[in-house]
Design goal:
two-stranded antiparallel sheet, Mg_chelat-rel_C, ATP binding, single chain, Rossmann fold, globular, 44% helix, two-stranded parallel ribbon, mainly alpha, ATP-binding protein, 230 residues, 12 helices, Mg_chelatse_chII-like_cat_dom, 4 strands
């Protein structure tokens, strides 16, 4: 009996229309991470083997987590980082700029202090958050109702022409975004993603148009660019 290398779905295709969570992102081989770039952009992946070629859908929400350095304590106010500068640079260099460009939100999550853990003041409930998200998705579904695929009826899947149509900003906002782009040396892809995120923030706020506060918040979510991460 002979074994055959028949192409089949991998993790990114198995997560189609769902969430693909990659923990400890820099621990993956850089070559494995780099092949994610085009599938994240196109929502499909093509696998070629000796037995044939197959194209599979892979429209996923990528969520990744990582430490700021190998020991995990860079920037921590309560613990001292034990890593050298070259160690931190090698660790962070495993994540390329083009891959980061394809991630809409960069969120820093500093460690919580004991008094914060003991705080019993209630925050926004999951039920309220879910209602806000469902309302925003309903707006987006109506906005893109002409789109053939239901999975594409969201801001994240907007084409460049749709961004120009639905993410219009005024001159003052345009100047603000241009200044941020120049200071952070952001790419054209990051420019589009900032506008998509700003549009989503506006949807969550129930706003018809992108406001300056929404744009500023979206820019703040490029924290890895701000820190010259790569």
């Amino acid at each position: 009996m002979f074994a055959t290398s028949i192409p089949g779905p991998g993790e990114i295709s198995l997560a189609h229309n769902g969430v693909l969570f990659l923990d400890e992102l820099p621990e993956f081989k850089r070559s494995a991470l780099e092949v994610l770039r085009q599938p994240l952009e196109d929502g499909k992946v093509t696998i070629s083997r000796s037995a044939g070629k197959i194209t599979l859908p892979c429209s996923v929400m990528l969520v990744a987590a990582m430490n700021p350095c190998p020991c995990g304590y860079t920037g921590d106010s309560s613990r001292e980082c034990r890593c050298s500068v070259p160690q931190i640079q090698r660790y962070r260099s495993k994540i390329s700029g083009p891959l980061l460009d394809r991630i809409d939100l960069h969120i820093e999550a500093p460690s919580l202090r004991i008094e914060e853990l003991r705080n019993s003041e209630p925050g926004e409930s999951s039920a309220v958050m879910r209602a806000r998200c469902e309302a925003a998705r309903s707006v987006q579904n109506e906005r893109f109702q002409a789109t053939e695929l239901a999975s594409d009826r969201c801001n994240a899947r907007m084409s460049h022409s749709q961004i120009r149509q639905h993410c219009a900003i005024n001159k003052e906002q345009g100047d603000l975004l241009q200044q941020a782009m120049e200071q952070l040396s952001l790419s054209a892809r990051a420019y589009d993603r900032i506008l998509k995120v700003a549009r989503t923030i506006a949807d969550l706020a129930g706003a018809e148009h992108i406001q300056t506060a929404h744009l500023l918040e979206a820019i703040q979510y490029r924290s890895l660019d701000r820190n010259l991460f790569y």
